Amino acid sequence: MSATYQPGVRTxxxxxxxxxxxxxxxSRDDVDPETAWYRGHPLEIxxxxxxxxxxxxxxxxxxxxxxxxxxxxxxxxxxxxTCYDLDTVTSYHGHAVRAAVHDQYPELINDx
Length: 112
What we know:
Elements (H helix, E strand, L loop, with lengths): L9 E2 L1 H11 L9 H7 L1 E2 L19 E5 L4 E6 L2 E7 L6 H13 L8
Parallel strand pairs: 1-5
Antiparallel strand pairs: 2-3, 3-4, 4-5
């Protein structure tokens, strides 16, 4: 799956007003969630609350990780619904997201 432009992707109120301001690391260019999404790398993870390696991830159609903002973003239908900070993990969902990123992009996770 490529990180190409997808017309119609928009940010939910929950992400834009609550999650993004507190979870995204300010990057060089101070981007919004849509920009982080489009430039992000595909993150292959199981759907929803399934059994397996990452049982506590939110329902989603696609996930991507943006190294510049240090976030993993989740899309459901045409809406970006939430994001998780890769550095400050505060929930069981965050731990599962961080584990998925660590497995696929170990260079993004500082285990120190």
